Amino acid sequence: MAEQITVSVDSDVAKLYRSASDNERRKLDLLVNLCLRDATESGRSLSDTMLEISRNAQRRGLTPEILQSILADE
Questions:
Q1: Using CA atoms, how far apart are residues 74 and 58, in angstroms rounded to an integer?
Q2: DSSP 12-48
Q3: How far apart are CA 16 and CA 5, in angstroms?
Q4: Confidence class of residue 72 from pLDDT cuts 50, 70 and 90?
Q5: What is the Rg, in whole angstroms, of the alpha carbon atoms belonging to the chain?
Q6: Higher pLDDT pick, 8 / 45
Q7: CA 65 to chain centre
Q8: Could you tell me which of 6, 13, 36, 51 has the fewest CB atoms within 10 Å of its CB?
Q9: The predicted structure's pLDDT at residue 73
């Protein structure tokens, strides 16, 4: 049985999700479910998971300056 939870995302992600078709939203829901399951069942510590996320973000071009700008907007 599926349950609903609330997850905070940035406004761009929220807009994209809301504008997606029902089929696309179901796929995104499944992807988020799998990511959360992997993060919680992997046996890795929260700090290890956060470090991996940080490395992936840096590899994709997120700089400390961009992150600070994003955080300042909220």
A1: 21
A2: HHHHHHHHS-HHHHHHHHHHHHHHHHHHHHS---HHH
A3: 19
A4: confident
A5: 15
A6: 8
A7: 20
A8: 6
A9: 64
Q: What is the pLDDT of residues 22-51, one digit of tens each?
A: 999 999 898 888 888 877 887 888 788 878
**How high is the pLDDT of residue 18?**
95
39 neighbors 49 (Cβ within 8 angstroms):
yes
Burial 22-35 (b: 16+ CB within 10 A, else e): eeeeeeeeeeeeee
At position 65, the amino acid (one-letter code) is E
Whole-angstrom Cα distance, residue 70 to residue 64?
Answer: 10
Do the beta carbons of residue 17 and residue 25 sit within 8 Å? yes
The residue assigned the tokens 């049985």 is 1
